[in-house]
Here is the input.
Amino acid sequence: MAREITKIGVIGLGTMGAGIVEVCARSGFEVVGVEMNADAVERGRGHLQNSTSRAVSRGKMSEEDQQALLGRVTTTDDLSALADCGLVIEAVPEVLSIKRDVFGKVDDIVADDAILATNTSSLSVTDIATATRAPSRVVGLHFFNPAPVQKLVEIIATVITAPDVLEDIRDIARRLDKEPVVVGDQAGFIANRLLLAYLNRAVSMYENRYASREDIDAAMTLGCGLPMGPLALLDLIGLDVAYAVLDTIYKEGRDKLHAPSPMLKHMIAAGLLGRKTGRGFYTYEKPGSGKVVEDGASTSVVPAGVEPRPTTKVGVVGSGTMATGIAEVFAKSGYEVKLVSRHAGRVEQAFEGLKKSLAKAVQRGKLTDEVREQAIANISISTALDVLSDVDLVVEAISEELSTKQAMFENLDEICKPGAILATTTSSLPVIQVAMATKRPADVIGMHFFNPAQVMKLVEVVSTVSTSTDVVATALDVCEKLGKRAVTCGDRSGFIVNTLLFPYLNDAIKMLEAHYATTDDIDLAMKAGCGYPMGPFELLDTVGLDVSLAIQRELYLEFRERGFAPAPLLEHLVKAGYLGRKTERGFRTH
Ligand SMILES: NC(=O)c1ccc[n+]([C@@H]2O[C@H](COP(=O)([O-])OP(=O)(O)OC[C@H]3O[C@@H](n4cnc5c(N)ncnc54)[C@H](O)[C@@H]3O)[C@@H](O)[C@H]2O)c1
Here is the structure.
């Protein structure tokens, strides 16, 4: 029989507890908040007062509603005040002994049918539940930070949790206006398990000096539309918290990818915990502030005094989506562009497509007619590579095949004037192998644009061991003039974005394959819990399962990391011809 719950207790009124009190009171429940002592009670009430006042000042809550909400909340340092609560949610620090102690005490205070929930993000709910006399009434109820904002709650059912407890807690979560997903008691649950492994990879990338902190963060926000970059997010979460969650996940599965990066440990030892201590990967104005200040730790790959080469004439080789988009971007920014493709029909078609895209931009009010006309006037098309003899920069965007690209670069090397820079847009091939097809490897660089090039702000600028610094400087300078945000990185498979993105997608597939959660639940967890624009399965179906598999295979071959091996389910779906939206079936049927 469903419980009639009207009163909820919350233990611990810190970051999460105070937010959970607000969520419960907002939905009309009577709430009892319990802290350790009078000072902590006062601090907890302060959090609640501030957060609701902010909502009032932003026009999201009326003053009357705020008063009514606060009127439903009583706070105390006496656990016995929880006696008549039908549900008690614990949000004390992430330490098993503290949580077990709290559960043992509450167990004796509340009625026999009351539900006990823990907000733990990494500890075993089963371990906590066994501190009570009736572990079947214990569940995990994992809110996301900030609790009043994030829609997701993960409900964790242990092997002992009673089905009626689960039903009732799911019902309460809905009454709290949250989107619940129910999962088993596995470290990290859905969202943290997928998120933390990715954040850990970003730390390793930074630790190995593959890219700067700013570039790693910009790559993921601009390349994937994530609300925050991984290192900035770690500063927000707290490095100690992230470490604890990773450590628990690692100990459960012994997967090296979950072993916290050594750098995290050193930073924690040095007190660099993120925003809360005023310094983590970035330095903040003061502890608790989110305002980043200059700290001299930003690095540049281009030494001072290295000048970019003058660039006005640009060649774009290819006639596909990328070549057309890139030609448009250059032409709009005032460069003289020569668009070249072997096939007469195709290069004309590409030019027509480009004109249409410009016209659309005018219609949408994103471009003036004048700029459109000028852009078209800036472009000439040809089927002969010879016209590229006088350009300062060539951007190659032909098919993704090493031998085809090598042959092209050999030709370009013969045709282009000395000092001209040859760039490839490859997303997966080693740039150095393309460079070695020329007699000027120092002048060869990767410029990885994202699709659609007209829209996506990110360009990964990839330098090889041979690329000269003034060539890097030129690529960065050109990107700036194109209104793009360039990030620099080394010449290895996946660059920044794919190396961080695809193993996360692969992990999501493995989670599905293990029947830990459904596609809908996993997608929901990442969207409603982490603010991702798309869930992993939505993204996989959009990118294409064949493309995703190819990238994941390359990453595996490059890093020989066991955890990077493509999930068997992905291989099977590709074999079955379920490639995603383009074949109307992938992880979902479209
Ligand atoms: N911070 C996050 O982003 C986040 C997100 C989801 C879940 N969680 C989980 O929520 C829980 C709380 O985390 P937080 O970030 O709010 O921590 P916090 O340190 O901000 O708050 C913990 C509060 O518990 C109080 N407390 C300690 N012992 C107590 C006791 N015996 N009785 C009553 N109160 C006691 C402390 O005084 C403190 O105010 C942890 O389990 C954490 O893993 C945190």
Observations:
- The chain has a mean pLDDT of 96.
- DSSP finds 22 helices and 18 strands in the chain.
